Amino acid sequence: MSMKSLNAIISEIRRKEDKVSLETSHLIDEASQMTLYLKELLHTTREYVLKEGFKNEAEEIEFFRNIKPQILGQLIYYNKLFRIETACPVKNGKMYQKFFTSQLQLLKQEFKEDICESHFYRYYRSGRNDRDDEYFTRGKINYKDGLNSYVFEIDHQFSTYYDSKVARIIANELIYSYLITKINPDDSYGSLMQNPDSAKEIFWTDSKNALIELIYALHASGVISHGKIGIRKMTLVFQILFRVPLGDVHHSFHRMKDRAGTRTSFLDHLKLSLEQYMDKEL
Asked: Do 160 and 141 touch, CB atoms closer than 8 A?
């Protein structure tokens, strides 16, 4: 492999996510396969870095600030997803809600203790780059800063310590969104809408399968974010927009593929409705 750009790495991961989501019908299987894939991608990337090195300091900073954290962050996320899903006691009910609520509280506590209460977190969040040569080049760790003990366990040939911090920030944001939708999709509605009151009258009035069919069609056509956004994130947006929980969309999609007759009944209905509307305007 050659040193890939951030966009290339993200696109590669998204393509793998799409392939796995089409081949699996359960989140546990998807999380397991993505964990193995990202683990291998990280290993291959490490081998390349140790063999080829970097052309200059700017390339090293770009790798440890942006590229490696994307791979590691997604790896942490999918591994956590697998652990949570395989430990979930039931499908619905109070125990279900209590389990995911407790997971969310643990995530918040870990984030508060390990990440957000630090000078580096404020540095990274503010978009500063004046200390990038200190944070994102190897061999610059200042042990007098009172760092977490895992600094002594990291691979100093393939880590600056702070790249792991960025990866955890990325992973925690993904895990947070996942847990919120598990507990109640409506809880994340207000945080993504600047004026939620103005959108209360917007809700989905067809079946959930119809909305899932539309989401997959938009994803397959690559018309949203140039096709670089994954099914899971698109589903979250539509759940929030229309305030409707969609459940296991991958399982629903697999059932659609086995439909008798047309497999795109809702899209066919949309096409017919639009054509009829156009004819009225003539």
From this structure: yes
153, containing H or E segment: none
**DSSP-derived secondary structure for 157-220:** TS--SHHHHHHHHHHHHHHHHHHHHHH-GGGGHHHH-S-GGGGTT----S-HHHHHHHHHHHHH
What is the Cβ-side half-sphere exposure of residue 116, based on CA atoms within 13 angstroms? Answer: 8
Domain stop point among 160, 183, 206: 183
Over its C-alpha atoms, the chain yields an Rg (Å, rounded) of 22
Extract the tokens encoding 2: 């050659």
Joined together, the tokens standing for residue 216 give: 């997959």
Q: Are residues 114 and 37 in the same domain?
A: yes
Domain that holds residue 153: 1-183
62/141 same-domain check? yes
Q: Which two tokens stand for residue 245?
A: 């929980």
User: Are both 15 and 77 inside the same structural domain?
Assistant: yes
Distance CA 171, CA 149 (A): 20
Total structural domains within the chain: 2
Residues 11 and 130 reside in one and the same domain? yes
- Can you tell me the distance from the alpha carbon of 261 to that of 264, in angstroms, rounded to the nearest whole number? 9
Q: What is the pLDDT of residues 218-251, one digit of tens each?
A: 988 888 887 778 788 888 888 878 877 787 788 7
Token pair in block for residue 17: 């996510």
Q: What is the DSSP string of 12-28?
A: HHHHHHHHHHHH-SSHH
Give me 155's structure tokens.
Answer: 């691979």
Regarding whether 112 and 157 lie in a shared domain, the answer is: yes
User: Which of 41, 109, 46, 113 lies closest to 78, judged by CA?
Assistant: 41
Q: Which of 116, 151, 183 is the last residue of a domain?
A: 183
Query: Is pLDDT above 60 for 197?
Result: no
Q: What is the pTM of this model?
A: 0.68
